[in-house]
Amino acid sequence: MKKPGKEASLLIIYTGGTIGMVHDPVTGSLVPIDFRYISDHVPELKKFGYELHSVSFDPVIDSSNIDPAVWVRMASIIEDRYDEFEGFVVLHGTDTMAYSASALSFMLENLNKPVIFTGSQLPIGLLRTDGKENLITAIEIAAAKTNGNPAVPEVCIYFDNKLSRGNRTTKLSAEHFDAFSSPNYPYLAEVGLHIRYNRNDIAPPQKGSKLVVNKIFNTNVAILKLFPGITRNLVHSVLNTKNLKGLIIETFGSGNAPTYDWFGEELLRYIKKGGIILNVTQCHGGSVEMGLYETSRQMLSAGVVSGKDLTSEASVTKLMYLLGKYTSREEVIKGLNRSLAGEISFL
Ligand code: ASP
What we know:
Helix content: 25-40%
Distance between the termini: 43 Å
Bound molecules: aspartic acid
Shape: globular
CATH class of the largest domain: Alpha Beta
Strand order of the largest sheet: 4-1-5-7-10-11-14-15
Radius of gyration: 21 Å
Number of domains: 2
Largest sheet: 8 strands, mixed
């Protein structure tokens, strides 16, 4: 609970990643910081009028090792301490941050508080780090209010002056500070001298509904990226993977694929066996529109589901989440066709 005189009370959850690294004074190598002493590295935190609490994973995790069990750990911390805090900041490696933010957006149903993911390209212990600004502004956004309500009651990613909806975000650069983009949805806030919230694009508060945390994922899924020259052998092997419940095909352009007869036959055989195929585009922006070209008709008639403008990260987490939640194929397909947490647009 917030102490008297404090503007907001927030929980920082440190999972790992570059942001939490400093040079070991003895060896000179980069090592994770002891998060209890974060304000020694970022003294600016003491200047906030907020009450900041933190929990740290032990050991911390490079985000390449994150999996659904870790998403459950993160979501459970938020669930257990939901009533204590007005907002949450999750420090996470950048590599899979967009997957984790997408997964949590589906797990945290009826979320009415900010959950802001951030990280950095350079460790917080380096002079030129981008981590300090990312952390400080993520905290400010997590504490922000509009008419007494949380300004951004969503799972978001804050990085390099932009706040984006987590399940709309994708990692774009392993080099630049401007590492993330939101190709198909406007930024929720842009940061310069002021933090300008794009209020019309932010989900409205979910007043009165209790937080429900969905913790089951089914990982029997695969992603197949098409390329010119793809062989039947490859498509056949992927579709015949033991226990495969759903396949995401990353298609060309607005959802197009080769019109070879064998391609349609393989997809149809898998769908008739009860499998689910979701069509997302391998383009960085834009949407699948099945039927627009002849080259997507075959998939449409085989019963492939359109992923519309889902990012790759949101498509795989959404499919694992729906397959974990429902045993009925129809329910999973119904969920894929709906926006659960603002992850798809309806044209
Ligand atoms: N490998 C790191 C991670 O994702 C990279 C980073 O944090 O930027 O955990």
